[in-house]
Amino acid sequence: MAQLTKAKDYQAEQWELLDIELEAKEKIDNPFGLEINASFIHPSGETLDVPGFYNGENIWAIRFCPPQIGEWKYETRSAMPALSGKSGTISVSANTNPSQHGPLVVSKTDSQRFSYADGTPYFLLAFELDWLFALDWDNTHDIPKTRQIVSHVAENKFNHIIMNVYAYDAGGSTWPIPHGMKPEHDFSKPKTFPFGGDNDHPDFSTLNVDFFKHLDRVMDHLNEQQIVAHLMIYVWNKKVNWPAAESDADNLYFDYVVKRYQAYPNLVWDISKEALGYGHNDISYITNRIQRLKKIDAYNRLLTVHDYRYCSSFPDQVDFISAQKWTYDIYTEMHSLVEKHAQQPVFNIEHGGYESSTYNIFNGAYEDAVTCLDRNYKIIFAGAYSTYYWQNASWDNIIYNPLELPEENQPKFEYYKYLATLFERYPFERLRPIRKDTTTFALSDNESLVLYYIPENMNQVTCGHDFMEDKLVEITWFDPLAGRFEEPYQIDYAKERWSIFRRPENAPPSHAIAILKVMD
User: Would 417 be classed as within a structural domain?
Assistant: First the structure.
């Protein structure tokens, strides 16, 4: 957080969070219903009208994240005189954190790719951690379990966590409690709740500020780690005792979440997990929530809906397309979506692959580690982004230190570190899927570079690309299971447009990537 320099004046770095706190001496019967806003004005003329939120103990906070350097002036507005007309300046300097690149945006140079606000490309590689909010819910000062699992996520180059604001229980007849699960890994039925009371006996007239202060600590830590929080505001199938849709209590919760978290630069909004499932609501409700959010969110953070039926019907309402596609031929399915939604990024948020470990929670369609990895590669080679699920982290049963497991039960997180490394060397934002004149999955910059994803048991690739004609081509093999690049060798394409190359003896025996690059 930024620092107060003197009364009402602050210093901050660009994209750094700053809480401006105001205190009212008199007690208010309904503090969550009291509106407070602040206008922030930059010398360039940019103005942000940011809503504040009640933070307990007669304190209201306005959370600011400066998008530009320079001196911002602010002034508050409220029906309560003690909170209105407060003004000051915020001196904003350049960010000194080399890993801080600002909020996630759709790239200005390519509408199907993501970047950070400063233009740095962002290769979305997601990890599902729905119950992340619950790991340290009973610790009022620290989040050690959260930091432990997030450290494994960050070390393996995942940069996007799918998470709920709140979820309650995935158990029952459909999701039985797994045999042998240790109590310390069971985070179902957390004794915390965003409203007053608890999930069984809710008090929908008020909100639990302590719940949100804890969620702040989680969000702060993800921001420090430069991990985007893909925050799902609702979830319908995890036994949460939600208030009635569009009731005063529903709006109270929804508005408060948007006011409190919109400033985080590492935020992506998602209205709900599987938004149109389970009979909780309809399309008009989701559209209403989106429009309500956009009126409140001064920062215009990216927004999507975990429901392809909605995204495909109303692409103008979302910033990127989220799909939940489990089909066997996942490459063809995702390639068709990339072609259909040519002006937006496409993200397969849940593809049916759930890598298993010590005990199974929900097997889905695929659970073998290599098979799950294979589906991720096929989605990416179709030109979309993808998500990794590990059964012992994705839901309410979380092994927050997987290295404590016997080696044979540890998840293959490293496969995804290798995947990210591949696309650091050959940036994904420069590549597009090609299907013509090749017998396998291919990404190319259509100038000098082609990456082929070659499945297990495929030994020969036929390809033909105009830009390779009459050229000397270097081939490098990459092993996605070991993260190893083999020594390159050359092929002369000078005499023919159609060429065949075989997997050499030193190439990876299983799934492999062949990188073909035209020599200067």
Answer: no
In this structure, are 65 and 130 located in the same domain? no
3-state secondary structure 121-151: EECCEEEECCCHHHCCCCCCCCCHHHHHHHH
CA dist., res. 261 & res. 488, Å (int): 48
Of 93, 125, 140, at which residue does a domain stop? 93
470: left (phi over 0), alpha (psi -120 to 50) or beta: left
Render pLDDT for 117-170 as a digit per residue (tens, 0 to 9).
999 999 999 999 999 999 999 999 999 999 999 999 999 999 999 999 999 998
Residue 266 lies in a domain: yes
Same domain, 385 and 473: no
How many domains is the chain built from? Answer: 3
pLDDT of residue 329: 95
Task: State the residue range of the domain holding 386.
Answer: 104-399
What is d(CA 8, CA 418) in angstroms, rounded to the nearest whole number? 48
For tokens 């915390």, what's the residue? 192
Amino acid present at 451: L
Phi, psi of 388 (to 5 degrees): -110, 135
Rounded CA gap, 230 and 228, in Å? 6
Q: What is the CA radius of gyration of the chain?
A: 25
Residue 377: which residues within 8 A CB-CB, separation 6 or more?
Answer: 419, 441, 453, 480, 511
pLDDT at 275: 87
d(C-alpha 16, C-alpha 361), whole Å: 38
Residues 465 and 394 in one domain: no
Kindly give the parts of the chain with pLDDT less than 70: 1-7, 172-176, 494-498
- CATH code (residue 435): 2.60.40
* Residue 493, both tokens: 């394409």
d(CA 373, CA 367) in angstroms, rounded, equals: 10
